[in-house]
Specification:
about 25% helix; 4-stranded antiparallel beta sheet; alpha+beta; about 170 residues
Length: about 170
């Protein structure tokens, strides 16, 4: 019985080592210059930016751009803002989207990227009146779109999806 317990403990440590090696290898091959989950702050306004599916949009497949705007202090009132998101590829404007039509501070924009490459999403907000509780802002986020998802990218994205807790809730 004691020998069986020792074997189980050794097996568990062995599997944890393999998982650690796999995660470390993924960290080495993960591109560092473009992120699908990021935030920026300007003049007290914070914009959170995320791309779907699972942080890795693929060309000619349905994707989504989620934008959430808050304030560092206080509440960001979307009804005070004329907010837009522009999708650009190589400085060419592909589309413009009005944000927060439903008066919620988070918007999901369904989008299909036509080809692989680096796209930019320009998020801007202009106060509708002088009494607005924020100043005009513009922030740019880059999105890396792949032509297809490799096996390792698929595994990595699913592991990150579970680790990040997104499978439990969406913001």
């Amino acid at each position: 019985m004691q020998r069986l317990l020792i074997l189980k403990v050794r097996y568990t440590f062995y599997m944890l080592r393999l998982l650690g090696i796999f995660i470390a290898a993924q960290a080495l091959v993960t591109p560092l210059f473009v992120s699908a989950h990021e935030s920026q702050q300007k003049n007290g306004v914070v914009v959170f930016f995320h791309t779907n599916p699972m942080h890795m949009p693929v060309a000619n497949k349905p994707a989504g751009i989620r934008i959430l705007i808050t304030k560092k202090e206080g509440v960001f009132k979307v009804e005070e803002c004329t907010c837009t998101a522009k999708v650009l590829h190589k400085d060419e404007e592909l589309s413009t989207h009005t944000l927060f039509a439903d008066a919620k501070p988070s918007t999901l924009i369904p989008y299909k990227f036509a080809k692989s490459g680096i796209y930019s999403v320009l998020v801007s907000g202009t106060p509708k009146s002088e009494e607005a509780s924020f100043e005009e802002f513009t922030m740019t986020f880059d999105v890396r779109v792949e032509s297809e998802m490799t096996f390792l990218e698929t595994v990595r994205s699913r592991i990150m999806y579970v680790i990040s807790g997104e499978f439990l809730s969406s913001w």
